[in-house]
Amino acid sequence: MSNYVELFHRLDALLVSNCQFWQFMPFAERGFVWQQNPQFCQWLMSIDDSQLQLLSQDIHALTTALLPWIKDAEQLTQIAAEVSPLVRTERSVPQGFESGIPGRKWQQITAFNEVLPRLGLPWLEWCAGKGYLGRVLAVSHQQPVTSLEWQQQLCVDGEQAAKQLQLDINFVHSDAFSIESDTAIVQQQHAVALHACGDLHVSLLQRVAAKKGAAVSISPCCYHLIRQSHYQPMSAAAKTSALVLSKHDLRLPLQETVTAGNRVRQLRFVEVSFRLGFDLLQRELNQTDTYLAVPNVQKALLTQGFEAFCQWAAAKKGLDLPLNIDFEYWQRQGELRFAITERMELVRQLFRRPLEMWLVLDRACFLEEQGYNVVIGSFCDKPITPRNVLIHAERGDL
Ligand SMILES: C[S@@+](CC[C@H](N)C(=O)[O-])C[C@H]1O[C@@H](n2cnc3c(N)ncnc32)[C@H](O)[C@@H]1O
């Protein structure tokens, strides 16, 4: 059993046995889902907002705080931290190459390039956008690049930039899921995908493996962008897992807590508590226990107060509001539910990186099964991009 398969099974067991702490939709629940553990709920409610902020930004503090309630907290955080930075080899890129590329994207691209081995193979850049990465690969490896992208304008812009920089880049305007795009994948090639979403990178890995492509390196993102209703495990290891992941579950790895200022936090409090309050009201009126999604709202409407919001939401949903509604009561209920929802989201944060690792390991195990030597690591620091995991695979017989 490889290290990755072993790690996958350990992580899988932890995620399965603790699924009551993360596999649910907080905003769809009326109250805490842990009613059978009232002390845990009381403790969560005793956390004030500044502590909540603190814990949501410090995984180690969160782990320690949750340890009395979730005995596997430490182990989960430890396993998720088993991604070490990949070794970077300095690769100089001529001046001017960064022109027109947003700062963070440039840092991601140079970091990605610097952790890739020099295999002397032509490159395939999957879901290339304007081919920013391809430009850097072309110049620092002196190998031709094929950049496949779906949006025509991005291909046009990318082609123009490549021409100006005199680079050997060929854009293929194609849907990555189409049969035709298959012809872009060949055996003697190093395929790369920087932040290709969900099924787009999954289908690349499957097709590279099917063609016994020499090497592939991806940094996955947007795990929830899949064509099926639920996650389709790739590896034999994940196929035996008891976990069935919905799109909502698959969003968890991307739910990074961003440090928002007071004003943004206050706006969010108003909007979300209004929505949750209205939802409780409609549950009462409709005699249902099902969450009712309400469309996006113009922020100006929120300044008109809860009642105006309810009138608007009811009209949108074709719901008749009786005249005797105690709007103050439902607003308070919404605010209380907001506090509960936030605390349930806080607990789910403990599982964010472990779930991402489960998904990354599924890809790594799949590639190993297909005859590849696989390395997982981080290619840059998290402030540059939270999606900083890179999976690199080379055929054993290369
Ligand atoms: C998140 S962007 C990443 C772009 C680039 N790799 C980067 O990191 O700058 C994803 C890219 O995938 C492209 N894309 C989306 N669906 C596609 C499809 N079905 N076939 C090919 N490209 C697709 C989008 O147009 C977009 O340029």
From TrEMBL:
InterPro entries attached to this UniProt entry: Methyltranfer_dom, SAM-dependent_MTases_sf
What is an example of a Pfam family matching this protein?
A: Methyltransf_32
TM segment ranges? none
Q: Where is the Methyltransferase domain?
A: 124-228
Signal peptide positions are none
Q: What is the name listed in the Swiss-Prot or TrEMBL entry for this protein?
A: Methyltransferase domain-containing protein
Q: Which species is listed as the source?
A: Photobacterium aquimaris
